[in-house]
Amino acid sequence: MTARHAAKGCSNAKADARKDHARHAGHLAQDAPGEKDDGRRRAHRGRAVAVAAAITVGVAAGAVMAMPQLRGQIFSPAGDGGADASTPATDSRRGDAGASGEEAGTTKGGGSDASAPDGGASDTSASGEAKAAPKEDATALDTGADAKVTTFTTRSGISVTAPAGFESTPTCEHLEDAVAAFTARGYHLGFAMVDLKTGRGASYNASQKFYPASSIKAVYVTAILESTHGGAASSSDAITKCLVDSDNDAFRTLLKTYGYRVYGSWLQSRAPEAAQEAYGYNYPHISAAGILNCWREVYRFGTPGEPGASLLSGCLARTNHSAWGALLRDRFTVWSKPGWYPANEGLASTATADNGIVFSDCGDYAVAVLSDAPSDFDSLLPVLDALNAAHGKMCGGSSALRQTSATTVG
């Protein structure tokens, strides 16, 4: 498949990459909320104080592990996306942004830096390394085509379809730990991942709707390319800026040129929970199940070389600010479209999302990860890393964790 070898190049200089952050669609010209420095803590001495501190840590850890998690769901290779996707994220606030779909406060170049959240780096090490899985999970597991496959739900509500025995592996445990660490921060999360050949995968809160921010742009571009039989490729400059640089103005230009009707109609059969809003709003709220179905269609359209497919796949293979790209593009071709938003503003809500296709060492997989974290890729990276490791373990590839201290989204 030609599209599998889409160029990953055309990397921007660091100065240009920082400048491009400001062009992300729908972002306000403000940093994401950070943690304030509470000042230096006074040193405490004495055995009694040390014992009290140890007890406090133990109680806090127990509280985190005891947190109830919502249940997810898994999808077969056919993936009809039939799950109920009508429930909005808990913290998603909706206001009157007008029928045009413009987000309140949006201006050209107004953006929140995807790497801006204060405290993100230290929090990543705490959540990603607190109980890290081995670099390669050596647990014996039959992953062949004839392997017995089971579907089960973990104690924290992750739905898994995988070879028998996967539930007892450190890789499965690490995925649970990564989800627990993310949700312990008070964030809500929904994801769906499926191997496009075997149907093996995992999901969590997959029917819950989230604000997708600019991750939805890949859906719109695919819709207009398909509906025009590749004719929309004549807008290649706007499409490239919209996808690679996540440019606000380029997205608006495409919407003015091709309209909203194609948006809602295309979503109707793939993510019906988002279709009605898409007839008049740029960033319709959508579920992980719905956006996963959209990316399955991106894959179908992009891999056989249909008219306009090379433009789409070439852009998606080199998107800036991609967490999936930061983790895996040094090893695999990755098509992705991230999105992030720092505040609740009108129809927009806080968001950190990254969705796409990974052409991995053991099979291509589609993945959708949505959250209401306020522009916080540092906290989301360990979840993505654990999902990739889980796919590798259940499909016979590498189960190694890829995130290091040098992994940055930029």
Automatic annotation (TrEMBL):
PANTHER family: BETA-LACTAMASE, BETA-LACTAMASE-TYPE TRANSPEPTIDASE FOLD CONTAINING PROTEIN. Residues 1-44, 77-142 are annotated as: Disordered. It comes from Parafannyhessea umbonata. The lineage of its organism: Bacteria, Bacillati, Actinomycetota, Coriobacteriia, Coriobacteriales. Keywords: Membrane, Transmembrane, Transmembrane helix. Residues 113-130 have a biased composition (Low complexity). The chain crosses the membrane at residues 48-67. This is Beta-lactamase enzyme family protein. GO terms for molecular function: beta-lactamase activity. One of its GO terms (biological process) is beta-lactam antibiotic catabolic process. The keyword Transmembrane applies.
